[in-house]
Amino acid sequence: QVQLVESGGGLVQPGGSLRLSCATSGSIFSIYAMGWYRQAPGKQREWVATISNGFTNSADSVKDRFTISRDNAANTMYLQMNSLKPEDTALYYCNAQTPGRGWWGQGTQVTVSS
What we know:
- It is a single chain.
- By secondary structure, the protein is mainly beta.
- Helices cover 0% and strands 58% of the residues.
- The protein has strands at 2-7, 10-12, 18-26, 33-39, 46-52, 55-58, 66-71, 76-81, 90-98, 101-104, 108-112.
- The protein is globular.
- It starts with a strand and ends with a strand.
């Protein structure tokens, strides 16, 4: 079992920044990749960024604005989001991959609006 708890969402003006956190507990040793996804109202959930064995990758829509990182000592993954745009408004989910299945958190809401 893996438990994921997101935090750090909120309301921010366009051009602002937020840092999301994903606290991980349970069978952490079995996690081989983690990532962030988001789902805007009326749209499908979409991939944002992934980190695995120190390597990172992110969607073109957030590249150069969002940075994914992981603190193994703190069992926490982060998503630093800069230069936020209204189209970044969504419920952001943390994901962890273990052999055979993926795990999801409950999500944290990010709203970008003036």
